[in-house]
Every structure is written in structure tokens, then in C-alpha cells.
Amino acid sequence: QVQLVESGGGLVQAGGSLRLSCAASGSISSINIMGWYRQVPGKQRELVARIFSSGATNYADSVKGRFTISRDSAKKTVYLQMNSLKPEDTAVYYCLVRIILSNYWGQGTQVTVSS
């Protein structure tokens, strides 16, 4: 089975930065998509950013220009650099890895942005 380990969440003041990491391990032949989603209580989980096998990326409009997704293929790790953080970015952030036709989720890491 594929396992994902997330790290990098925490408490930061508005305008600050955090860098999230998600490392995949297990029986992995190739990764099609890696991404980040976030969720707040009472709301649906939403897409933050994705990176495809080609290297192409896309972002939610709310984070464009502030967040950057990247990967280290050798380490099977995806990162989310979050700059100029706002209180509305507060959420639990979940890593996603798609391998062939299966989706795998991390356990989530809390990001809290204080005003």
C-alpha cells in the first residue's frame, strides 16, 4: 500500500510563510498527479494546487501568486510553499497522490494563520 507522510504545518502570523511537505512511500511505479487540498469544519474539501507528471501545474484562484507547488521526483515528495498567508488560509491541508487509477490521501496537517 502507498503511504503519505505530511509535515510543515503550524501557526503563523498573517503575511508569513510556511512550507508543507508530503513524502510518498510503498510500492510505487509512477505517480500521475500530486496535489494539495484543504478543508475547514463544515465546508467541502477544496483544491489548492496540483502538479502533473509533465510538470504542469494549476492553482485555485484564491492562492495564485502566493502559493507554489513543486516536487522532488527522486524523493517522491511534493511541496507547497505558502507565502503572504492570510487568515482565510487557515485549514487542514491534505496531500493527494494519484497513481494509475487510485487516489491516496495524507492524514492532514493544520495550518493556522493569525491576524
Q: State the helical fraction.
A: under 10%
Number of helices: 0
| Average predicted local confidence, pLDDT | 95
Q: How much of the residues is beta strand, in percent?
A: over 45%
Let me know the number of strands. 11
The N- and C-terminal alpha carbons lie at a distance of 40 Å
Class by SSE composition:
mainly beta
Identify the overall geometry: globular
Give, in order, the helices and strands. EEEEEEEEEEE
Uncertain regions spanning at least 5 consecutive residues:
none
Radius of gyration: 14 Å
Can you summarize the main beta sheet? 7 strands, mixed
Short note summarizing the structure:
The protein has 115 residues and is mostly beta strands.
Give your account of this protein's structure.
It is built from no helices and 11 strands. Strand 5 (46-52) and strand 6 (57-59) form a beta hairpin. The protein has strands at residues 3-7, 10-13, 18-25, 33-39, 46-52, 57-59, 67-72, 77-82, 91-99, 102-105, 109-114. The mean pLDDT is 95. The strands form 2 sheets. Strands 2, 4, 5, 6, 9, 10 and 11 form a 7-stranded mixed sheet that branches. A 4-stranded antiparallel sheet has the order 1-3-8-7, with no helix packed on it. The radius of gyration is 14 Å and the shape is globular. By secondary structure, the protein is an all-beta fold.
